[in-house]
Amino acid sequence: MSTSIESLLREICFRVKVKGREVLKEFPITPAQFDLMQKLYFNGEQTMTDLSKILGIAKSTTTGLVSRLEIDGFVERKRREKDKRVITVKLTKKGEEVIDKVILKRIEFVEEALKDFDESSKEKLKELLSLFNESLKKYR
To answer: Is the pLDDT of residue 6 over 90?
Structure first.
């Protein structure tokens, strides 16, 4: 049972992800850069070190991703006032707009797929997914 649930979740997540990333064709953003932008969008301003850890990539790779995104105006870097050695990165308004467009595309895709469901089924699906999500939080 767990195997089939994992497989279904993986397939669903992949389909939603691919549909949302269609928006990225409008921008000079790679999937790796987009992943970094998403982390900033949902977690707020981060240090370079924290971004590297969150993404599971080398700090030098993170620096390359951030540099390109900064040149294109999607993120900005700044040194901390208290400790000038620490550099933080945050999403710009332009970067937020990209993420917002991707999320909207995903929502539209899910809405389209849910047209085949009656309201009761939609509520039950939401309830079950919420329960499952809460259960997963125990195992961080």
So the answer is: yes
